[in-house]
Amino acid sequence: MKEKYDFQEVEKKWQGRWAAENLYVVPDFSDRPKYYCLEMFPYPSGKLHMGHVRNYSIGDVVARFKTMEGYHVLHPMGWDAFGLPAENAAIKHGGIHPADWTVDNIDNMREQLKQLGISYDWNREVATCHPEYYRWTQWLFLQLFHQGLAYKKQAAVNWCTDCATVLANEQVKDGSCERCGAPVEKRELAQWFFKITDYAERLLKDIDLLGGWPDKVKIMQEHWIGRSEGTEIDFKVVGHDEVITVFTTRPDTVFGVTYMVLAPEHPLVEKLVAGTDYEAEIKEFVRKVSNMSEIDRTSNEIEKIGLPTGAYCINPVNGEKVPVLIGNYVLLEYGTGCVMGVAAHDQRDFEFAKKYDFPIRVVIQPPGEDLDPAAMEGAYEEEGVLVNSEQFDGMPNTEAIKAITEYLEQKGWGRFRVNFRLRDWLISRQRYWGAPIPIVYCERCGTVPVPESELPVLLPREVEFRPTGQSPLAECPEFVNTVCPACGGPAKRETDTMDTFMCSSWYYFRYTSPRETAGPWDKAKVDRWLPVDQYIGGVEHAILHLLYSRFFTKVLYDLKLVSVQEPFTNLLTQGMVLKDGTKMSKSKGNVISPEDIVARYGADTARLFILFAAPPERDLEWSDQGVEGCYRFLNRVWRLVAPLADKIKSAADDAPRAKQVGANREMLRVTHGTIKKVTDDIGARFNFNTAVSAIMELVNALYQYKELPETDRDQGVLREAIDALLLLLAPFAPHITEEIWEATGHTGSIHSQPWPVYDELAIKEEEITIVVQTNGKVRERLLVPAGLSADALREKVLGEPRVQQLIEGKKLVKVIPVPDKLVNIVIK
RNA sequence: GCGGGCGUGGCGGAAUGGCAGACGCGCUGGACUUAGGAUCCAGUGGGGGCAACCUCGUGCGGGUUCAACUCCCGCCGCCCGCACCA
User: Fold this and answer.
1) Which of A321, A382, A480, A739 is 20 to 30 A removed from A691 (C-alpha atoms)?
2) In A623-714, which ranges are continuous DSSP H helix?
3) ipTM metric
4) What does pTM read for this prediction?
């Protein structure tokens, strides 16, 4: 073994050998229990960033650990390779084709991942932009289409002005594009949607099945789905043959309605004002509102404005005529796009009514109080008893919710209804670099799905990349013009491509049979591997990717294409990598490049630091000095073993544990205690940072131990300790441990060894230092035999002269013995 | 506004309700050395004491308990998510 740790040489050597020996290639089937360890695949943006390094280092520890524990582990990697940056690069730099740009980036990043020594089965690599992959993305689209789950409709959709394409609801953040931050507008366009709302109830209910997910993510999804129970009530419009249907969660307040507000874009508005004095003003207002950016529109600061339409509608329960307005705060997308105004019992309505002088009618009376509408300073939203509500007077409002709904149903004026916040998933994108939607429009046959046998609908290579608001495919006649699969007549292809979240909603199935050509996957293989046992990635995907993937899995389950209802059993959302307290970004100039770190310290150091510096789900503060420390530690391990390697080689195979005494006994104890702690920290707690610190402590103990005179130590004990050290460290620092493993005379890769098992007997202490407290304060430490019962411990401690001194002259109130830990003596 | 998380030395962070600060960084001292920014050893929360020790200490204020960083209640601060949801 060389005297000095040359990480470059070591890492290169083993990366080459692992690849040559196919060490990480996983067979499809095995008798061993399976374990599917998956990290979110990256968008091939060019280079890995520290977030990737963290994500994949965590996954690699889990995968290697589970492999050593004897599981048949699937640990694949691939590329979320369609998407805007490639196309934007083509627009910006001319000359470079998105496909070439993407392939170059993939090659580059694959190389980086290999340099990190992550144990991927590269035979299973997939890239979503590959025709053999998107062929099946298109195939899956067709399955949804045939199920009636894919449909095209004209709708006011989110339009990113910068990306020049529509966005899904989930991709709009604070009224801006989630990706580029540009303002989002509303546009009326015909777009393809997936009916994820059909699955809203199941997506919500099955959150219960996600025991291994962080509560935070589950709550976010719950909120996003946003189930609420309420009542729909029909209000007839005076003088029109129209009905305004309103959704409310408070049908108990229906007798308190004094006006009605529609969303400006509500389809009825135009009809109600046509030909009236109000028409001009309303139309002007609607135009103004719909031209506002999403940011301004949804801002809380904005003043609530209402305009009368001149129309009136009839409250079915009391026959009252109430005015119909439009209001800028009413959202067309939610509920039925209108709100009934109950000023007395809704704070927002209250303020609105004050501003426009609508009557405030109390219909819920708080217990023991008499609300005076004139004196009210805010709405009363709590529970109470109904008043001014005819036959419902005197009923507690919680009961009235049900009773009034039943009454309305009986009369045919309304109905119980569950409403969701979740909208259908808009999957059309007016961009080039995505999977084409496999649909053809024929003048005679209408919308015709491309037959499965004609997939994939290939992306043409030669197109113009100008962001015009139309897909570049639309300007490519060779692509657009086709024949109708149904009648053979001339037809035009759909030119929108699919949201890339569609590609990433099923890739984890594809890994199980990545080269399958007869279908998207081989059912037996999918059944072998799914569900994913551990999924690891950033929280930023808490809603988008994870919700879409759950939706896909449920659809595929219903189609009997997969046998699981949920794709990911356990989810770990890793924290961000920060520098100087903030996210690394080019503009802040605080980016640390993984390449530099690997070049300077090696992959093992980089991985070790990132796992040591913080628990995985918390944010991690980057520290150059911390990296130095980890580098020092690996050097320390090297220097510990280097001079001993030859001796260890020739040591006996087994240290006779039972016979060891003194320092040897202690060394064994530390060794096995460390095995126990590290096994628990990785396997049960995912606390890699404390696992690493336990290994560091083992190394510290070994440094002490090796300084002993040779006659005082046992070669077998030393060897056992060093073997354990290497095995425990192997998932974190795979290269250096492999090198030392070989140098200490082992044959076969360390990564194929069984995980060490601790010996209960070796850990067992004969004597333990316990703490003696009086009134909860530490006063003494005593060495007592291990395993004393509570009673024996009490007697033993009270019998000690030093303890006698402590309690002398005091009144003994109580003694609490905690075996092997402490004794607390309560005295007065 | 609603929901979630966090708050512990100079720093990153440890502590199934049971010795607060493991491990690492930094710092201080020592050893080795021509030299060390290498390595090894020791020390390192505040205050007090020559010392054994004493005392205070986990954002703040209460509570439960023999015992609270940990559990409960009320605040304060920071971070994240959602946000006119009818």
Assistant:
1) A739
2) 624-641, 645-649, 662-680, 688-706
3) 0.95
4) 0.94
